[in-house]
Write a structure and sequence with these properties.
The chain is an alpha+beta fold. It has one domain (about 1-95): Ribosome hibernation promotion factor-like (Double Stranded RNA Binding Domain, 2-Layer Sandwich), CATH 3.30.160. It is about 40% helix and about 35% strand. It is built from two helices and four strands. It has helices spanning about 15-30, 70-95; strands spanning about 1-10, 35-45, 45-55, 60-65.
Length: about 110
């Protein structure tokens, strides 16, 4: 998993880098096929914004979160990404187990 961390209008401190890297380990535990992760952290007046794009096999997943605290924004970002990655994983396994090879209209 390649992890790219970028800061807009801010400097990425070692503490923030360590925190984000540790949090994204959760996603790696749930889904092994994560190829690239691009994280952009930005500051605009009183809003701290975290956005991420994850490239998994066959799909790109994008999520963004805003909060007053950057660490809380990173936490919310990881939670949303985790839900979307698990949803993608379930869809992939459902397709694999479907005999017809087509998605059934449920």
């Amino acid at each position: 998993m390649n992890l790219h961390l970028t800061g807009r209008h801010m400097e990425i401190t070692p503490a923030i880098r360590e925190y984000a890297t540790g949090k994204f380990g959760k996603i790696k535990r749930h889904f092994d096929n994560v190829i690239d992760v691009h994280i952009i952290l930005s500051v605009e007046k009183l809003k701290q914004k975290a956005e991420a794009t994850i490239h998994v096999s066959g799909k790109d997943i994008f999520v963004e979160c805003e909060d007053e605290n950057l660490y809380a924004a990173i936490d919310a970002l990881v939670d949303r990404l985790d839900r979307q990655v698990l949803k993608h994983k379930e869809k992939m396994s459902a397709r694999r187990h479907d005999d017809s090879g087509k998605i059934s209209a449920g």
